[in-house]
């Protein structure tokens, strides 16, 4: 009887496991399908894309469509501009937000909670509302057509401070910090030599989010960068939209290759990214 009950329980567990994996695989396929179909369109000619029913298998025009992109815009120059901007903003954000997060998490000073609450309130304000005053400030500083107009305003953000503060609070023990203070370490040395090595997964997560956000940003670079040689990749891709005739194969080819660096960045840091999420799940 006990053996029969065990077999029933094992069968029930296997069925649950099967449906969980089925759900996860189905969700993954649905999530990946838009990217796959973008690749399919990047390998097809315009007349093939407009067929009914549309093609769902890759074609043979990937190189031809990408050559059209290269003849229309300075693709690699714009990609280099995006890489410089995204990398600079990401590195600056990781340093400043982690430093601010450490301050809010481990230091006591007057008005700390009020100041942190005000920072959180800024997350509720749409960034478009600050477009005009931010443009006036950039103009007054003489930073139009300059990468500083994109890099400097993006060096710190409320979400980054919030994320780092929460992660440091749960991942860096107070006992280690107190021991370092007794040994005579300064606040910055404690942050740099003790806290930073312990929060590398948080760095990876925030870095991926910031890099993707800056890489895909379109509105602000369009406003402050007028010189075509200074355009980031998303702004340069706009030139592929011809009002007279839309070449979807060419547009999707440019969009596909613009997405590849993001995939590479995620694959490089996905282990730390998953580690940070799993640690947060266990500690919560």
Automatic annotation (TrEMBL):
Residues of the ABC transmembrane type-1 domain: 79-269
Membrane-spanning segments: 20-39, 78-102, 114-135, 147-164, 190-215, 248-269
Organism superkingdom: Bacteria
The keyword Membrane belongs to this UniProt entry's keyword annotation: yes
Compartment list: Cell membrane
InterPro entries to which the protein is assigned, alphabetical: MetI-like
Subcellular location, principal: membrane
Topology versus the membrane: Multi-pass membrane protein
Signal peptide, first to last residue: none
Pfam family, one: BPD_transp_1
Keywords, alphabetical: Cell membrane, Membrane, Transmembrane, Transmembrane helix, Transport
Family named by the database record: Belongs to the binding-protein-dependent transport system permease family.
PANTHER family, alphabetized: ABC TRANSPORTER PERMEASE PROTEIN MG189-RELATED (PTHR43744:SF12), ABC TRANSPORTER PERMEASE PROTEIN MG189-RELATED-RELATED (PTHR43744)
Annotated protein name in UniProt: Carbohydrate ABC transporter permease
């Amino acid at each position: 009887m006990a053996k029969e009950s065990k077999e029933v329980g094992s069968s029930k567990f296997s069925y649950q496991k099967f449906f969980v994996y089925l759900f996860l695989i189905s969700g993954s396929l649905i999530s990946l399908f838009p990217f796959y179909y973008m690749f399919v369109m990047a390998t097809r000619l315009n007349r093939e894309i407009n067929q009914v029913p549309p093609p769902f298998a890759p074609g043979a025009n990937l190189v031809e469509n990408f050559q059209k992109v290269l003849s229309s815009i300075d693709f690699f120059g714009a990609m280099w501009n995006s890489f410089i901007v995204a990398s600079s903003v990401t590195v600056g954000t990781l340093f400043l937000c982690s430093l601010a997060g450490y301050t809010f998490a481990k230091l006591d000073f007057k008005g700390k909670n009020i100041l942190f609450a005000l920072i959180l309130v800024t997350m509720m304000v749409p960034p478009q509302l600050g477009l005009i005053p931010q443009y006036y400030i950039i103009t007054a500083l003489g930073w139009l057509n300059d990468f500083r107009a994109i890099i400097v305003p993006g060096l710190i953000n409320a979400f980054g401070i919030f994320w780092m503060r929460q992660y440091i609070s749960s991942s860096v023990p107070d006992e280690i910090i107190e021991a370092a203070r007794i040994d005579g370490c300064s606040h910055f040395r404690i942050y740099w030599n003790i806290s930073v090595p312990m929060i590398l997964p948080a760095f990876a997560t925030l870095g991926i989010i910031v890099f993707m956000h800056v890489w895909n940003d379109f509105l602000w670079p369009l406003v402050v960068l007028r010189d075509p040689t200074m355009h980031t990749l998303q702004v340069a891709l706009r030139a592929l939209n011809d009002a007279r005739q839309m070449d979807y194969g060419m547009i999707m080819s440019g969009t596909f290759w613009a997405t590849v660096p993001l995939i590479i960045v995620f694959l490089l840091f996905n282990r730390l990214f998953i580690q940070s999420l799993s640690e947060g799940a266990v500690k919560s």
